Amino acid sequence: MSKKVNSLKILKSINSTKKYLKKLDKPIVFIPTMGALHNGHLSLIEIGKKLDVHTIVSIFINPIQFNDKKDLEKYPRTLIRDIEKLKALKVDTLFAPNIKNIFDKNFQTNVSVKNLQKNLCGLNRPGHFDGMATIVLKLFNILKPDYAIFGKKDFQQLEIIKRMCLDLNLNIKIIEGKIIREKNGLAMSSRNSLLTKNNLLLAPKIYEGLKLVKRDFTDCNQVNSQLVIKKLNDFYINNGLKRIDYIEIVDKKTLEKVRKIKKGDTIAVAVKLGKIRLIDNLQF
Ligand code: AMP
Question: What domains, with CATH codes, occur in the chain?
Fold first, then answer.
C-alpha cells in the first residue's frame, strides 16, 4: 500500500509503538519534545529530515522533571497545532503517550548523571535532571533510535544526555542543534508564551547582555570570569532583569566553573521574569 503524502502516524501506546517499529526498514532519528512546538523544535526536526531516515518526534510533558508543580500545571499544551506543524514538515511518526502508559503506579527507578548536574540549573532545580535523564532513557528504550537530536539552548541537558549515552553504552548518535531565536534575540521557548506583555519586552535583554559581554571580551583568553559575570549582572540589573537565578561561565564539557576564561567556554544564565524562568547561553 502506498504511503499518503503528509501522513503522520500518531502512536499513543507502547505496545502499538513496538509493533509499528518492528515493520520499519529504515534507521530512526528521534526528536524528543514537550510540545508547544516553536521554530526551535522545528529546526531540530529539519536537521532530522535531512538524514533521510524515519523521523519520530515525541510530545510528552514529563512530570518527574518538574520540581515546581505550578510550572507543570501551566506548561503550555497545544497538541492540535503541534500536529499540524509536524504534518507540514512531513514528520513520519508522533509518539504522544499518556502518563499512565509511561509511569505505572510502582515506578521507582531513577537515572542520575551525577557530576554534570551539580552546577547551573541543577542547583536550583533539584531532581530536574534525574527526571529528564530517566524519561529520555525510557523513550530511547521504547523507540530504539539510531540518532537523537537535542538543542544547545538546554546545553546542560545535552551534555548530560551525551554522558548518559557513553556511560550506559547506548548506541545512539547525538546530534546538536543551534539555538533558534526571535528577531529580537530572545531564545525561543515554549514558556515564552506565558510571559506578560511587559516581561516579553524585557526578555530580549537576556541575549543582549550575553552578546555585549562576548563583544567586550572577544579576546577573552585569561580574563577573570568574575569580571565578566559582574558586568553582565550589572547590565541585567540596570535593564530591569532583577531576579537572576545564576550567571556562570563554565567549561563546555565538564560544566565546571572556570576562573580564567578560555575560548569555547560557555556563559550561561537563568533569569526569572514574573513566574517564568528563562535560560540562555553563549559560547566564547
Ligand atoms: P522542550 O520541548 O523544551 O523539552 O525542548 C525539546 C528540544 O528542543 C530540546 O532538545 C531543546 O533543547 C530544544 N529546543 C528548545 N528551544 C530551542 C531553541 N530555541 N533552539 C533550539 N532548540 C531548542
Answer: 2-177 (3.40.50.620), 190-283 (3.30.1300.10)
